[in-house]
UniProtKB/TrEMBL annotation:
The lineage of its organism: Bacteria, Pseudomonadati, Pseudomonadota, Gammaproteobacteria, Enterobacterales. This is DNA-binding protein. InterPro entries: Cro/C1-type_HTH, Cupin_2, Lambda_DNA-bd_dom_sf, RmlC-like_jellyroll, RmlC_Cupin_sf, TransReg_Diox_bact_type. The keyword DNA-binding applies. The keyword Amino-acid biosynthesis does not apply. One of its GO terms (molecular function) is DNA-binding transcription factor activity.
Amino acid sequence: MTQPISVIAKSLVRERARTGLSLAEVARRAGIAKSTLSQLESGNGNPSLETLWSLCVALDIPFARLLEPQVNKTQVIRRGEGTKVVAEQANYQAILLAACPPGARRDIYLLLTQPGADRISHPHPPGSVEHIIVTQGRARVGLMSAPEELGEGDYICYPADQEHVFQALEPDTQGSADR
C-alpha cells in the first residue's frame, strides 16, 4: 500500500491533539505499540491498513481524515471589497462573503440597503432557513405574511422556502444574511 506518510503523520498529530489523548493512550486504544505510533507521527514507517483503521477507531475519526491534508485557509474581505450583486427593483446590494464547499448549502452575505422598494425574495429550495442580523439602521424583514421590524443588533431567523422580504427603513441600513 502506497501512502503519503507525511500527510498521515500530520493528521495523526493533529487528531491526537484534538482529542487531548496522550501518545500512550491512543496506542493502547488502537492496540499498537507506543513506539509504532511515535514513529508514524514522526513520518516514519509503513503502516498497514489494519493499523490505520485501528488508529481511526481510537481517535474516533473517519478513515479518509488520515489521508487528506488539512487546508487552513484564511480569507479576509475588507469593507468596500467583494463582488456586489445589485437588485433591479430595490435599492439593495448583496456581497457574497463566504460560499459553502460542494455538498453543503450555506452562503453568507453583507447587505447594503437604502429605503425604497421592498426586496422581495422568491422561495429558496425546500428546507432553507435564512438568518439576518441588522448591523446598522432599521429594516422590515421576514416572511411576507409576517415581517418584523428590526434595529441595530437585532436578529431574525425564518423559513426561506417561502416568499420573504427585506426593506430598509433608514438610509444606509446594513446587515448580514446567512442562508
